[in-house]
Amino acid sequence: MRGVVFRGDRKLDILTFDDPVPGPDDAIIEMKASGLCGSDLKFYREGVHKTLRTLGFRDLVASGYQETDPIIAGHEPCGVVVEVGSNVDKKAFKPGDRVMVFHYEGCRYCPHCQTGWTQMCEHGSTLFGLNGHGGHADYMKVPVSSLVHLPDEISFTGGAAISCGIGTAYGALVRLDLSARDTLAVFGLGPVGMSAVQFGAAMGARVIAVDIVADRVNRAAEFGASELIDASQHDPVEKILALTGGKGASRTMDCAGHSVARQQAVRSAARWGKVAFVGVSGDVTLNVTPDVILKQLTIIGSHTFSIVGQADCARFVADHGVDLDKHYGRLWSLDEAEEAYRDLDSQSGSKTAIVF
Fold first, then answer.
1. Which neighbouring-strand residues pair with 229?
2. HSE on the CB side for 141, CA within 13 Å?
């Protein structure tokens, strides 16, 4: 089979690998869609091994890899089961099942793993596409414990999107306990932020969409935003306060990962409000007494989702008819992976994927 490997310095190769063989507790997935995620750009620009050292992931050598071993990229995999190991109960997963892959694997026994948060494993986690082979290949071997059934109502590209970026937005809204009573302000309208707008509207909330790129702001109306704020032209804090009668938004999310957007998400939040930091880069400086303490504010960090949350997200999408494919721009073949990542690196804003 073939697979995409990041070399760093914005270079990648498509290499030939042996077709995977399942262990007793594994499944082999024939890939149908493998999403490209903005967080892949760090691996694409810096290379896998440097990124592992920077982020503090479990060393590849401890996982049985050497520094020179190629790792197949892609952490938003979705496809069809073609083979399962001898220990796998076919009542759970069998050949022909449509599945998403929860893109982390842990020890399966610590408290975090047992509650579905394997990315927080006390003994070190595997992130498929970084320190374990990912989905940018014809086939993928995964522990069956990392599989999530894909409802028939959802396309393979929709399932790939749920497997990281779009699922991350849903997970943060669940952490915020969002309801139809709320006004939600979303800062940063890349794929994660735009998904938060779409899910927030589907949950019945009034949604205010904020970005510094006019095209993204205008497009947010298509995803259900009630009000649009171009932060390059207006102070979003002042605009949100004006739109809410001076109260502020009861729920806010930073999906930009930028210090200014984080400050604005906090300052525009209402008293007793909740704020989620979702963007994974940057820092923030707050005037803690007026911005947080006197407002009785709750600030949470929301890192992706659990495997239970991924299944819950898929069920919500299916039950509410949420159109995830409208997030996608151009789709690519495996042979076009180099062009696909150049396009992603240009920050065009649309979701994209390799399809098989």
1. 210
2. 14
Please give the class, per CATH, of domain 2-164+305-355.
alpha beta
* Distance in angstroms (rounded) separating the CA atoms of residues 246 and 111: 43
Token pair for 270: 């209402």
pLDDT, one tens digit per residue, over 121-138 is: 999 889 999 989 999 999
Location of each CATH 3.40.50.720 domain in the chain: 169-301
Indicate the pTM of the whole model.
0.92
Helix locations, the chain, DSSP H? 40-46, 48-55, 111-114, 156-162, 165-175, 191-202, 214-219, 236-243, 259-267, 288, 307-320, 337-345
Per-residue pLDDT tens over the stretch 218-264: 999 999 999 999 999 999 999 999 999 999 999 999 999 999 999 99
Nearest to 216 by CA among 241, 182, 189, 252: 189
Residue carrying the six token digits 């996982």: 63
- What is each CA distance from 39 to 122, 230, 286, 293, in whole angstroms? 23, 25, 26, 33
Alpha carbons within 13 angstroms on the beta-carbon side of residue 225 total 25
Architecture of domain 169-301: 3-Layer(aba) Sandwich (3.40)
DSSP string, 80-144: EEEEE-TT--TTT--TT-EEEE-SEE--S-SHHHHTT-GGG-TT--EEBTTTB--SSBSEEEEEG
